[in-house]
Amino acid sequence: MARIPVAQRRRDFIDAAVEVIATHGIDGATTRRIAEQAQANVAMLHYCYDSKEDLFADVYEHIAGRFREVIEQSDPHTTVLETAQSILRGVMESYFESPAFGATTIELISWARRQHGDRGIAVYDQAMTIGLDVLRRVAAEEGVGTEVVDDIPYVIGALADGFAINYLTYGDRTAARTQMEITSGVLHSWLSERLHVAGKRSPRKQASRA
Amino acid sequence: MARIPVAQRRRDFIDAAVEVIATHGIDGATTRRIAEQAQANVAMLHYCYDSKEDLFADVYEHIAGRFREVIEQSDPHTTVLETAQSILRGVMESYFESPAFGATTIELISWARRQHGDRGIAVYDQAMTIGLDVLRRVAAEEGVGTEVVDDIPYVIGALADGFAINYLTYGDRTAARTQMEITSGVLHSWLSERLHVAGKRSPRKQASRA
DNA sequence: AAACATCTTGATCGAATGACCAACTCGGGC
DNA sequence: GCCCGAGTTGGTCATTCGATCAAGATGTTT
């Protein structure tokens, strides 16, 4: 009943997997649970994906893509400080809007860590790299040295992850809103101080630009 | 062969469990793997613990206790700034010294989150509470209002967790040392600014003290 | 309406898991 | 010396896992 094309089914399975992973963890995300969440059959899942591993690869890609969107969306901002703030805020907002997305991200990172070395680091590393690219671009236009911005992605990542773990643990949306402000303030304090110090040592070397 | 008293066996199983959880995750930590790591038998494990759940409860307590030690060890420091720095540094150092401890902590927190509500939050919440107690005590002696320190444990926790995830993901000890410095600097920037502002609004109300 | 590809399902397989048990073996107290 | 309890072990159980299959249902093309 209700015949659904494979492409749409795959998307349903990915969404279902995100939900189940968030609720039961990576290892608790069994094919049966995912199938049930997607209102489908275990056999149906294997009709769309050769193996559970293949489905998870798509989930991985899905999460990574969503990060890419959030980060690149913060591109048009003018200064390094504003851009960094925008990225951090965007990521935290994503976690806030969809706890399942946040929880699954943490689960995937933990899962990736276990698979020694290899491709495992992908999600984390990809987000870091994209963030760094965006910041470097803005920094170049602003005339800020790369050595100043190279540490920023780590700090943003650490603050965002720390916020996520706290929010996901307590699940308190009211407290989370406050903590987003605090977290944002922490980045602001550190970064403005850092940019100020760096600015003094090497006063604006304006980039050539229209 | 080599008969070992139950008490010692239990400790061995706890240590083994921490190691296995760090490597294979909570759900990957099977009784057989834990037994093997402890150079024992699956039946032996059930001789020491009625169930896997009971063993994990002890692991939970073990981790929580270690956190307690690290945080309380940072008590004797004089100022709020120094104390906060010392706690953050102590926690990060713990993760750095024993990645298994760090990884297991993250795993346990994630695991706790899944068991909806209940006692799950224990490890995280306990560490937060202890940290807050220590800081409040120091703040009282220093004459700093509690409203200023109440947010500090969250920031310390977030920074420490963020550092842990990054370090555990990449496993780069050299990079980790640098990031510990950066992370420490972030806390310093935020906290000194915050204490300065708060100090201006309500200039020292010296606590009576020898 | 016949033929065909696409989707859907219940049943079943081997492997791994947590738990349990009956039997064995030490080692100190009587 | 013998004996009783603490420690130890291999083997077995039901359950759940990912995966596969054969067969059925549905929609489209001719």
How widely separated are the two ends of chain A?
61 Å
Any idea what the CATH architecture of the largest domain in chain A is? Orthogonal Bundle
Roughly how many Å is the radius of gyration of chain A?
20 Å
Number of helices of chain A: 10
Total number of beta strands of chain A: 0
Mean pLDDT figure of chain A: 88
Biggest sheet layout of chain A: none
Number of separate structural domains of chain A = 2
What is the percent of helical residues of chain A?
over 70%
| Shape label of chain A | elongated
How would you classify the helix and strand content of chain A by structural class? mainly alpha
Largest protein-protein interface = A-B, 42 and 42 residues
Order of helices and strands of chain A: HHHHHHHHHH
Low-confidence stretches of chain A: 201-210
CATH class of the largest domain in chain A: Mainly Alpha
Oligomer type: homodimer
Q: At the third CATH level, what is the topology name of the largest domain in chain A? A: Tetracycline Repressor, domain 2
Main traits of this protein?
mainly alpha, 210 residues, DNA-binding, homodimer, 10 helices, Tetracycline Repressor, domain 2
What features would you describe in this structure?
The structure is a homodimer of 210-residue chains. Chain A is mostly helical. Chain A has 2 domains: 49 residues, Orthogonal Bundle (Arc Repressor Mutant, subunit A); 143 residues, Orthogonal Bundle (Tetracycline Repressor, domain 2). Chain A has 10 helices and no strands. In chain A, α9 packs antiparallel against α10. The C terminus of chain A is likely disordered. The interface between A and B is large, with 42 and 42 residues.
